[in-house]
Write a structure and sequence with these properties.
The complex is a heterodimer of chains A (about 210) and B (about 240). In chain A, strand 3 and strand 4 form a beta hairpin. Chain A has a five-stranded antiparallel β-sheet. In chain A, helix 2 runs antiparallel to helix 4, helix 4 crosses helix 6 and helix 5 packs across helix 6. The longest helix of chain A is centred in the last third of the chain and has 36 residues. With about 210 residues, chain A is an alpha+beta fold. Helix content of chain A is about 60%, strand content about 20%. In chain B, strands 1-2 form a two-stranded antiparallel ribbon. In chain B, about 70% of the residues lie in helices and about 5% in strands. Chain B is globular and about 50 Å long. In chain B, helix 3 crosses helix 9. In chain B, a hairpin with a 3-residue loop joins strand 1 and strand 2. Chain B is mainly alpha-helical and about 240 residues long. The chains are: A alpha+beta (about 210), B mainly alpha (about 240).
């Protein structure tokens, strides 16, 4: 009897541990399906309500992204020259910009299907690539891959590539150019100004 | 006779462009710029500005009109048709790169889609699991070890490295659409294909406008990443940071 109880107890512990350490491919699949399910049933997002899409991304997608790492990747070797405060400011502004890009892509969703490629991972790996494909009628499938790393808080996405184009490293030359022109502070100011101009467009669009 | 002289004009035009590209190489070498990925940045930015105007007033409005008017099945059939026409050349390039299995798939696709797929209007082969490949002579040269020769931006044609510009000329010889006669049908088909491709890029416009700090640089770096991905057939080795 006692044995049974102990076994039951351990089984429960293991199940809980497995849930906390969800596999990266399962995580991508679950988040993608959750988000698309909401978009499919939301006429506002489908008709281009970016603000609503941003709220959805904020709630469902952001917790699974590691923005400081993304920002460091986009900035390259200048990241180490930045003060912690500059790093924080840049991360915040870059996050706003990326979330908007991603949210806008969501408003273009028209019943595309996502295919999850077979995923294999060696025990103890902490940096993986999860590969998916977006299928749409009448055009070629688009490759959509996620790079994830394992942190204490679970698996986090630090890069996304669409058709081989990294949404993060595609900023590297533009960031370097801004840093050459006006230092890290100049870069922060440029990204902030970009976000502000998009914000104005958004308000204008809503008034229409 | 008319056929001959038109052909002559074509190749003269191509030779001129190729010559222009060569001149550029020397200019670029003389004025090494800051960005190692973009030795001809000054020239490219002016071409980009010209293209922006062409796109804003001609290419984009026409593509939008096509996108609004044509129903989805027509657009899909158009894309499939041009895709099918290109599969023989895709297969040739796979063979030239030593990927004979892929070349066989391309040939199978061409046979199936041209027959069961009714002149390529339906992509039956993809539904049967024969995946469409993206190959061109620029990629073949890259696999053979030819360097990219620097990034270029051309009006209408868009971004191409020097190698891919040369590849594009070779592609146009291997492309049945360029060989279609009479010339008027060839031109209509080239135009329709251009409009179809431009229309397929419309959703990306907004993303680029909003995401880019510098649209020119954003498109350049996206093109270079995309080409690298194509050359390695979707599995490029990781770059060190």
């Amino acid at each position: 009897m006692m044995k049974k109880i102990v076994a039951f107890f351990f089984a429960g512990l293991i199940a809980a541990a497995v849930q906390a350490q969800e596999a990266p491919d399962a995580l991508i699949k679950q988040v993608t399906e959750d988000v698309l399910e909401i978009v499919r049933n939301d006429r506002d997002i489908q008709s281009g309500n970016t603000q609503k899409a941003i709220d959805l991304v904020d709630k469902k997608v952001l917790p699974h992204f590691n923005f400081p790492h993304m920002t460091a990747l986009a900035l390259g070797k200048d990241w180490r020259k930045a003060t912690p405060q500059q790093q924080q400011q840049l991360t915040a502004e870059f996050r706003t910009l990326l979330v908007r890009t991603y949210s806008n892509a969501l408003t273009g969703y028209k019943n595309q299907k996502i295919v999850y490629k077979p995923f294999k991972m060696n025990a103890g790996e902490t940096d993986v690539l999860v590969r998916t494909e977006v299928l749409q009628p009448g055009s070629k499938a688009v490759q959509l891959d996620y790079s994830l790393e394992k942190l204490e808080s679970g698996w986090k996405v630090y890069d996304m590539t669409v058709a081989g184009i990294s949404l993060v490293t595609n900023y590297r030359d533009q960031f370097a150019q801004e840093v050459r022109n006006g230092g890290i502070d100049g870069l922060v100011a440029t990204v902030a100004a970009k976000n502000k101009s998009l914000e104005v467009n958004l308000v204008k669009a809503e008034k229409k | 006779m008319t056929k001959m002289s038109r052909g002559g004009e074509m190749s003269r035009c191509r030779r001129l462009l190729a010559g222009g590209a060569l001149v550029l190489v020397f200019c670029g070498a003389a004025l090494a710029e800051e960005n190692q990925h973009d030795p001809y940045e000054g020239f490219n930015r002016s071409m980009f500005a010209i293209n922006e105007v062409i796109d804003k007033f001609a290419a984009k409005p026409i593509a939008q009109g096509y996108d609004n008017v044509a129903p989805l099945p027509i657009k899909a059939a158009t894309g499939n048709f041009f895709g099918n026409v290109g599969d023989l050349w895709v297969g040739s390039n796979n063979a030239l790169q030593g990927k004979f299995g892929d070349a066989g798939i391309d040939l199978g696709r061409l046979l199936i889609n041209s027959t069961i797929g009714i002149f390529g209007l339906f992509d039956v082969a993809s539904e049967m699991g024969l995946e469409k490949h993206e190959e061109d002579f620029g990629q073949t040269m890259a696999v053979w070890g030819v360097g990219d020769g620097g990034y270029l931006f051309w009006p209408v044609i868009g971004p191409r490295t020097l190698r891919d510009t040369a590849g594009w000329f070779v592609d146009s010889y291997g492309d049945p659409v360029w060989r279609a006669r009479p010339i008027s049908s060839r031109n209509s088909m080239l135009t329709l294909r251009f409009v179809d491709i431009r229309a397929s890029l419309l959703p990306a416009d907004k993303v680029v406008e909003e995401a880019a700090l510098d649209k020119y640089a954003y498109i350049r770096d996206a093109y270079l990443q995309r080409r690298r991905n194509q050359i390695f057939d979707g599995r490029p080795p990781r770059l060190d940071d």
